[in-house]
């Protein structure tokens, strides 16, 4: 897919100017529009890196989460909780990973109704290779240095805290 031609102006800055003229200052409008555009850009970049592995970034995140777990497996409910996604999304993600041979499912011995998702050896290989490629491109954030990435993290943390992503205490 060819890249779209670059504009000769910043459309978000222009929208901000027009917004101010019509409704008054709203720095939050320019900020959210920039964040949403950055999300589109980053998702396209990281998805392009993991696509050769048959992954999307969401599937990659699930594999990484499983590699972080003590035994390479987690209950499906825990995956959804940690990735902060709906149970249906977890099921779809694990279905795709299972069809690709990257994850296996088995009944959870500690919960008669639950299911465990386990990363396979092939899943670990794919996860490691994709991680190397993503790190090589700085997860799409190569325009920033390490200090700026830490600043971005710090700037977005209060928003995540206010959304109850986690309890600080």
Q: Strand percentage, roughly?
A: 5-15%
**What count of structural domains?**
3
CATH topology of the largest domain: Arc Repressor Mutant, subunit A
**Number of contiguous helices:** 7
Task: State the CATH superfamily name of the largest domain.
Answer: Winged helix-like DNA-binding domain superfamily/Winged helix DNA-binding domain
Oligomeric category: single chain
Helix content: 55-70%
The spatial strand order of the largest sheet comes to 1-3-2
Q: List low-confidence stretches.
A: none
Task: Using the CA coordinates, give the radius of gyration.
Answer: 20 Å
Broad CATH class of the largest domain: Mainly Alpha
Q: Determine the structural class based on helices, strands and strand pairing.
A: mainly alpha
Largest sheet: 3 strands, antiparallel
Distance between the termini: 46 Å
Average pLDDT works out at: 94
User: How many beta-strand segments?
Assistant: 3
- The succession of helices and strands, N to C, reads HHHEHHEEHH
CATH architecture identity of the largest domain: Orthogonal Bundle
């Amino acid at each position: 897919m060819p890249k779209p031609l670059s504009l000769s102006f910043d459309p978000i800055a222009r929208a901000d100017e027009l917004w101010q003229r019509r409704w008054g200052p709203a720095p939050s409008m320019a900020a959210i529009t920039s964040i949403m555009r950055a999300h589109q850009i980053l998702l396209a970049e990281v998805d392009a890196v993991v696509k050769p592995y048959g992954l999307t970034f969401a599937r990659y995140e699930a594999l990484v989460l499983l590699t972080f777990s003590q035994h390479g497996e987690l209950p499906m409910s825990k995956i959804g909780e940690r990735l902060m996604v709906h149970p249906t999304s977890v099921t779809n993600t694990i279905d795709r990973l299972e069809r690709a041979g990257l994850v296996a499912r088995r009944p959870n011995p500690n919960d008669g109704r639950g299911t465990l998702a386990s990363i396979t050896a092939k899943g670990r290989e794919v996860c490691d290779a994709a991680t190397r490629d993503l790190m090589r491109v700085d997860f799409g954030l190569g325009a920033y240095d390490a200090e700026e990435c830490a600043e971005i993290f710090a700037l977005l943390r209060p928003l995540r805290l206010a959304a109850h992503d986690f309890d600080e205490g």
